[in-house]
Fold this protein.
Amino acid sequence: MSFAPELQDNQLLAALPAEDLEHLQPLLEPVELALGEVLYESGKRQAHVYFPTSSIVSLVYVMENGASAEVAIAGREGLVGVSLFMGGDTTPSRALVQSAGSGFRIKGSLLRKEFDRGIALRQLLLRYTQALLTQMAQTAVCNRHHTVDQQLCRWLLMSIDRLPSNKLVMTQELIANMLGVRREGVTEAAGKLQKAGVILYLRGRIEVIDRSKLEHMVCECYEVVRDEYARLLPWTATAREALAMDSGARSGLRTRGP
Amino acid sequence: MSLLPRRTGVVVAPANLPIDNRLVAALPRAERARLLASGKLVELVFAEVLYEPGARIRHVYFPLDGFISDIAAVDGRAALEVGLIGREGMCGIAVALGVDVSANRAMVQGAGSALRIGVVAFRRELQRSPALQRLLGRYAFVLLTQLAQTAGCIASHVVEQRLARWLLMSHDRAHEDTFSVTHAFLASMLGVRRVGVTQAAGTLQRQRLIRYARGRVHISNRRGLEAAACRCYGTDCDTWQRLLG
C-alpha cells in the first residue's frame, strides 16, 4: 500500500483525454485511505472529491435512529463526492472506507471549475452520476427483496470487482453495518458461503475462492448494476468482466468508448 | 382528473398556457420560452408506460398536474418504486446526464398533463442554456439524495410509515384529495405483499387519516398522515426546497 498511486489506476481519470488529465494532474493529491475511515459525514459540507485507485468507499445512509444501510459503493471505476460538481451543498450519505488503499483527491471548488470548463470531464462525470443513480435504485430493490445471503454475495462480488485480488480485509461488524442487518445475520450467511466452499473467512480476512459459484448464488441485482456500468462506462474493469462473462451477447458495447 | 381530452398528443400550444412545472418556472424568461417552444403539451394517461428498462428514451417530460412513477425491476417484473415525479421535477433526467437509455420503467401514476420534449430538441436547449444545465444538475443531485434516502427507508421503516409517506408524496403531486390506486399497485410500489398493504391501509383508516375503498384513496387528515409517515417525507421536501426552492 505504500506505493504511490498512478492516475491511470482510477478508470474515470484514465478515460479522460490526455490533455484534460494533464491539466488536472497538478490539482490531484495522492491519499492513503484507512479501513473504517470516514471521508465525510452525511449532512455535512465536504471539501474534496475522491478518486479511489485501490480503495473502496461505501456510501452509507444513516437513519435518524442510528440504523444504517449501504446505498452504493465506489472504487477505481468511479469517484466519491458527486454533490460537489452537481451543485449540491451537503452530502446525503456517510462515505466510509470499506477497503483500505490509495486514491487521489481534489478540492471540490477546483473540480467544479474544471467541470464547467472541460466538456470531456463534464460528460464523464455526468455519465458516472447516472450510473450511480442506477446502482442506488438497484440497491434499494435488493434491500427490499433479497435475503441477507444474496446481499452478501452481491456485496462480495461488487467488492472484488474493484480490487486487484480476490482477498478483502473486513470485519463482520462493518459488513453488518453496510447491509443494514445484525451481525449474527452476517455470521450465518458467511458461514454458509464458507461451508459451500465459496469463501475462506478468517480473522477479518475474506478470500473468494470460487467466484463462479458466487455468481451462481447472487441475486440479479449484481448483474443489473454491472451491466449498467458496462453500458455507461464501457472502459471500466467491471465492463470487461461483463463482456468476458457473456461474450457475444452485447455486440454494441465493443464499439463504444475509448 | 385532467380536463384535457383523453388521448396522448398535442393539445394546446404550450406558450399560451401558464406552465405549472416548478423546474420550468425557475428558468429565466427567455430560456423558459425556448424550452416551451421546443415541446408539446400532452396528456398523461393513467398506467401509461413512458419508458421501459433498457429501451431508448425518445422524450423527456415535465409534468404539470400528473405524476409518474420511476420503477426499478427485479426478477423480471416491476418491483419497487424508487421515485415519484410530478410538477416539482422531470422524467428523463438520464438524458440531461448524457444517457438516452432508461434504466427503469416510468409509468403514469396520476393522470394529468405534461410538457413533452423530444430528446434531440431537449439536448439542443440544454447545450444552449447554462441556466438549464445548472438547474438540472441540482435536480439530479436532489434525485440522488432522495434515492439514497429511499434505499435507507426501504431497509429500515415499517410498511405503515412508508405507505403514509407514499400517500403524502402522491397528494403533493395530485391536484385533488382523492386519487385512484389499487392494492396490487401499492404492494408493487412499496415492494411488499398485498396483505401488508391491507393491514397498513387499515391502520391508517382506523386512525381516520385516510378513506380507502374500491381503488380510491381519500386523504382525510393530512397533518395526521404527516405524523404517521417516517421522517423521510419531511427530509425529501426539505432537500427539494433547499436546492431548488
Summary: Residues 158-229 of chain B form a domain with the Arc Repressor Mutant, subunit A fold (CATH 1.10.10.10).
